[in-house]
Amino acid sequence: MSFALAVSAAHALRRLLTDPQYFQSLACLVIVGDALLTQLIIRFVPYTEIDWETYMYHITLYLKGERNYSNISGPTGPLVYPAGHVYIHQLLYNVTQSGEDLLSAQQIYAVFAGTVPNWVLLLLPLSKRLHSIFVLRLFNDCWAVVLTQLSILAYVRGLDSIATLLFSAALSVKMSVFLYLPGILVVLFRRRGLVKTLRLLLAMASVQAVLALPFLREHPGPYLKNAFDLSRIFLYKWTVNWRFFSEDTFLNPVFARTLLLAHLSVLIIFGLTRWCQKDGGVLAVLLRGLRRPQQPPSLSPLLADETITILFTSNLIGILFARSLHYQFYSWYAWQVPFLAWKTRYPNLVKYAF
């Protein structure tokens, strides 16, 4: 009897881990397990102060009426994030007793903590660094990541208007989300055509303008310079990607331009060889789209798998060539790695190593 029960349990476990029919059931179990793991981390691992105090100090100045980004600075530096970041942390400021109730803040952050087999889900909550980024450091990356995830889900389901608004909301929290834009442009142009793509880009810009209105109305220059500073010189001590170069090389403007050129080159290569291949190549897509700007140039509907692959690779290419990739930026792509790994032809052992 016990042997038969064990065999039945083993069979059920195998189906849970491998049968796509049980993917959502396993996902629910993983979420519950990760919630318990996160509570243990909050309970037994000490919190490390890095940027939370600065975020709260920025909000204190904002609530006192300061709207000039040049004058909003804290212990670890000035306010360098767009308006969405300010509004999110104003809410956190209110519900955490001006940022003093760290446990409540950690509990809030804990919430955000196809061809892929079910069991890969088990790998997602096992990252020590992700738990550290979200609940032991309270970085603002999680807010941008969650909004981006919702945006990608909407793009996958063809809800492009909603997806674009969500993407713009994510961009209002952190400019790093900009790395998805090349892929988004490809998806929108292929699926909606030139005219509708331009309309959606206008909607994206409008969201940024509305959210930033309190700052743009009074001090537009400092807001745009700080929140969207493309010329910022990053500190060598925080880089992850390029630690094997000397500091002089890292800070050299030629190095920055080389990375930008390499980034654009790889995007073009993917555009020419990957992202539009099913529709006859990028030139064919562009010609059809320009001839009939009101019509989508794609010959067939963009499937969910193709849409998400374009968006994920666009982001990963940008991360590969990012000059300053801090440790918390791991949260930008960690949840994408299993999907992208299983898009390759590598053996499962190699995919698991990724």
From TrEMBL:
**Swiss-Prot/TrEMBL keywords:** Endoplasmic reticulum, Glycosyltransferase, Membrane, Transferase, Transmembrane, Transmembrane helix
Q: Name one GO cellular component term.
A: endoplasmic reticulum membrane
Localization annotation: Endoplasmic reticulum membrane
Pathway linked to the protein: Protein modification; protein glycosylation
Q: Which InterPro entries match?
A: Glycosyltransferase_ALG3 (IPR007873)
KW Transmembrane (keyword) present = yes
State the EC number(s): 2.4.1.258
Record's family? Belongs to the glycosyltransferase ALG3 family.
Q: Which GO terms describe its molecular function?
A: dol-P-Man:Man(5)GlcNAc(2)-PP-Dol alpha-1,3-mannosyltransferase activity
Q: How is the protein disposed in the membrane?
A: Multi-pass membrane protein
The membrane spanning regions, by residue number, are 108-126, 138-156, 162-188, 200-216, 254-273
Q: Which residues form a coiled coil?
A: none
Reactions that this protein is recorded to catalyse: an alpha-D-Man-(1->2)-alpha-D-Man-(1->2)-alpha-D-Man-(1->3)-[alpha-D-Man-(1->6)]-beta-D-Man-(1->4)-beta-D-GlcNAc-(1->4)-alpha-D-GlcNAc-diphospho-di-trans,poly-cis-dolichol + a di-trans,poly-cis-dolichyl beta-D-mannosyl phosphate = an alpha-D-Man-(1->2)-alpha-D-Man-(1->2)-alpha-D-Man-(1->3)-[alpha-D-Man-(1->3)-alpha-D-Man-(1->6)]-beta-D-Man-(1->4)-beta-D-GlcNAc-(1->4)-alpha-D-GlcNAc-diphospho-di-trans,poly-cis-dolichol + a di-trans,poly-cis-dolichyl phosphate + H(+)
Its recorded name reads: Dol-P-Man:Man(5)GlcNAc(2)-PP-Dol alpha-1,3-mannosyltransferase
Question: In UniProt terms, what function does this protein have?
Answer: Dol-P-Man:Man(5)GlcNAc(2)-PP-Dol alpha-1,3-mannosyltransferase that operates in the biosynthetic pathway of dolichol-linked oligosaccharides, the glycan precursors employed in protein asparagine (N)-glycosylation. The assembly of dolichol-linked oligosaccharides begins on the cytosolic side of the endoplasmic reticulum membrane and finishes in its lumen. The sequential addition of sugars to dolichol pyrophosphate produces dolichol-linked oligosaccharides containing fourteen sugars, including two GlcNAcs, nine mannoses and three glucoses.
Task: Name the enzyme group at the top EC level.
Answer: transferase
Concerning PANTHER family, the annotation shows: DOL-P-MAN:MAN(5)GLCNAC(2)-PP-DOL ALPHA-1,3-MANNOSYLTRANSFERASE, NOT56 - RELATED
Q: What is its main location?
A: endoplasmic reticulum
